[in-house]
Amino acid sequence: MNSITGIILAISLFIIMTGMGLSLTIFDFKRVVQYPKAIIIGLCSQLLLLPIIGFCIAYFFDLSSVIAIGIMLIASCPGGATSNMISYLAKGDLALSVSLTAIASLLSFLTIPFIMNIGFDVFLDESQAMKLDFMATLKQLFVIIIIPVLIGMFINRKYPEFAFKVEKPVKKASMVLFILVVVGVTYSNRNEFVAYFSQAGWPSILLNISTMLAGYLLAIIFRLPRNQAVTISIESGIQNGTLAITIATLILQKPEYTIVPLTYGLLMFFTAAVIIAFRKRAKESEIITSDKNL
Fold first, then answer.
1. Residues 6+ apart with CB under 8 A from 274
2. Residue 207, pLDDT score
3. Which residue has the higher pLDDT, 128 or 120?
4. Which of 148, 160, 34 minimizes the C-alpha distance to 99?
5. pLDDT value at residue 291
6. pLDDT at 289 over 60
7. Which residue has the higher pLDDT, 135 or 121?
8. Model confidence at 167, in pLDDT bands (50, 70, 90)?
9. Could you give the CA distance from residue 30 to residue 257 in angstroms, rounded to a whole number?
10. What secondary structure letter does DSSP report for 249?
11. Collapsed DSSP state (helix, strand, coil) of residue 125
12. Which of 122-131, 168-177, 246-255, 267-276 has the lowest mean pLDDT?
């Protein structure tokens, strides 16, 4: 990956994470106390179930080390602004979605180095061996995750009217930037992408579907409302692909590890579209049933 692509990628992630911060307030974090059950279940699904499922897929299937590490990388990343948008369109609990995204993003700068080092230990042989320096990686992740979110929150707190005006344009820009990042990084690494795409497809879709299903079932088992179960499902399966790509290229300096995040980032929109369509139909059925009972 050339330096220009790296700069564009860093700027894109900064804008995306700042945009997330623009929509956050302290109250979004206080929901941990007010709605502990849904938050705890959602975080367990995101920060525990997701990496465990990713590890099992990487471990029990005959995957190359590039694909296995890519699976661990995308599984270690939190949701992003995209998950909030999809939760809204799917008639989920938007407040829960925003809170889960915010808290998981802040915690992920601690969990990502831990999860990735496990992946390196298990899936790389001696000739490929690498290890993330925990403290150095924390500093890097703090810069690319925490600081832009805090900047966005500061703007929201000090200049709420301005934050309200720019929030939607920034989120739209974030979506455009995500698409441009996917296209740009894919083109920059087109040789590796072509070589590994056929291997990355089915593990990516399996990870996506299984994590969304696991999140939903976990919420249902603990008797959360249907809209919160849908949100936890989405937060478990819609990951921050831009963050994963940034880690692979700028921190790990291994462009080949972007193959799974790129593939996953494309495929997750198809499953999201299915959920949105299903939820829309379910809501329409509820309205029709309600009208008949009147």
1. none
2. 95
3. 120
4. 34
5. 47
6. no
7. 121
8. confident
9. 36
10. I
11. coil
12. 168-177
Distance CA 74, CA 56 (A): 14
CA angle 205-211-214, nearest 5°?
Answer: 135
Backbone angles phi, psi at 281, to 5 degrees: -65, -40
Does residue 53 register a pLDDT over 80?
A: yes
Residues 167-194 have a mean pLDDT of 73
Q: Which long-range contacts (CB under 8 A, 24 or more apart) does 82-85 make?
A: 82/174, 82/175, 82/178, 82/238, 82/240, 83/234, 83/235, 83/238, 83/239, 84/23, 85/171, 85/175
Give the C-alpha separation, 214 to 133, whole Å: 32
Amino acid residing at 21 = G
User: Which among 65-69, 169-173, 239-243 has the top mean pLDDT?
Assistant: 65-69
- Identify the band that residue 8 occupies on the pLDDT scale cut at 50, 70 and 90: confident
Taking each helix axis as running N to C, give the angle between helix 94-123 and helix 147-158, from 0 to 180 degrees, rounded to the nearest 10: 170
With H, G, I as helix, E, B as strand and everything else as coil, classify residue 77. coil
Secondary structure element (H or E) that encloses residue 232, with its range: helix 226-237
- Domain range for 208 is 3-293
DSSP, collapsed to helix, strand or coil, labels residue 23 as coil
Q: Which tokens is 183 given?
A: 């296209």
Q: How big is the chain, counted in residues?
A: 294
Q: How many domains does the chain have?
A: 1
Helices 94-123 and 226-237 pack at an angle, to 10 degrees, of: 40
Amino acid at site 166: V
* CA gap 240, 149 in Å, rounded: 14
Residue 153 tokens, joined = 């929150």
Domain of 231, CATH number, reads 1.20.1530.20
- Give the whole-angstrom CA distance, residue 259 versus residue 240: 14
pTM of the full structure: 0.84
